[in-house]
Amino acid sequence: MPDNNNTNIILTGFMGTGKTTVGKLLAKKLKREFVDTDQLIEERQGLAVPEIFAKLGEAAFRRMEAAIAGELGERQGLVISTGGRLMLDPANVKALSSTGHVFCLVATSEEILSRVTSDADNHRPLLDGANPGERIAALLQERKQGYERFLTLDTGNKQPSDIAEDILKILPTL
Ligand code: S3P
Question: What is the pTM for the complete model shown?
Answer without folding.
Answer: 0.95
